[in-house]
Design goal:
With about 280 residues, this protein is α+β, with helices and mostly antiparallel strands. It is built from nine helices and 16 strands. Strands 7, 8, 9, 10, 11, 12, 13, 14, 15 and 16 form a ten-stranded mixed β-sheet that branches.
């Protein structure tokens, strides 16, 4: 892919051009895939829900023995500097943390972690996605250590051609008969007015948690529990959430129509509440 623009990045305590970031060939991120990451969007000039993103990043790092080199205050300051240094308000902020260089190519060396924050141009989804809904296809797959946001998305990249061929928006992972999450988002169902989403064996999504809060504030009943594929196919509505997409209605799974085949009432209400949350800057 040809890159026409070089966006600012944060590395080693400074805002630099992204093409100035140098990685060691012995970095465990490259050699072993020992890397975690986070992605958030900029809304109205601010990194949306950045404190929640930091907390999840720090928890992921701690789970595998890494340390985020910036505390929360310093991280927030770095995000502000990056946003101010960028020439476009439509931004995605991607944080990357790896085990860093290793002499034996296997063992992490404390204090040598590789850490940087990239800025990328944001490409919003077409309005038709929200107006008409999307299709998902399923894939048997179980993520290792699901609560750690590893950067290894090889299975998702491998599945891109099948997804394109079947006209699917994303791939839904299934393990032991239960759905877990999509390759790039969390999944909800609505049945008899109750909003349900899995909590076990999934990466807890930032927007996923916010949507549950918005639903409760709106008087919509909520439930965290395991969800089978049969539950999903029999749902009145299915939703997909993520930082870069917000709340997306799902109207087809593996060629099976969900509900009426159109975005439902609960999805519409939650999308309105989510938009208000963004506009309020909270």
């Amino acid at each position: 892919m040809h890159i026409d623009k070089i966006f600012p990045a944060f590395c080693n305590g400074n805002v630099v051009s992204a093409d100035q970031i140098m990685l060691s060939p012995s970095d465990l991120g490259m050699l072993r895939g020992f890397t975690i990451f986070d992605v958030m969007v900029v809304e109205h000039g601010q990194a949306f829900l950045w404190e929640r993103h930091y907390d999840r990043l720090a928890a992921s790092a701690q789970s595998i023995g890494l340390t985020v080199p910036l505390d929360k205050a310093a991280y927030g300051k770095a995000l502000i500097e990056l946003i101010e240094a960028s020439s476009t308000p439509e931004l995605v902020l991607r944080t990357v943390l790896s085990g860093g260089p290793s002499e034996n190519g296997f063992t992490p060396e404390p204090g040598r972690e590789t850490f940087y924050i990239l800025t990328e141009e944001r490409h919003r989804l077409p309005e038709s996605v929200y107006r008409e809904g999307v299709k998902l296809i399923t894939l048997p797959y179980e993520r290792y250590l699901p609560q750690v946001k590893f950067a290894n998305h090889a299975i998702s990249i491998w599945d891109l051609e099948r997804r394109k061929r079947e006209g699917a928006f994303d791939t839904l992972y299934i393990a032991n008969g239960n759905i877990s999450e999509a390759s790039q988002g969390n999944v909800f169902l609505v049945k008899d007015g109750v909003l349900v989403t899995p909590r076990e064996e999934v990466l807890w999504g930032i927007v996923q948690g916010l949507v549950m809060e918005l639903a409760e504030a709106a008087g919509i009943s909520t439930e965290w529990r395991s969800v089978s594929l049969e539950d999903l196919l029999a749902a009145d509505e299915v939703l997909l959430t993520g930082s870069s997409k917000g709340i997306v209605p799902v109207v087809d799974i593996d060629g099976r129509t969900i509900g009426t085949g159109r975005p439902g009432v609960i999805c519409t209400r939650l999308r309105a509440a989510y938009a208000q949350c963004i506009d309020s800057g909270k």
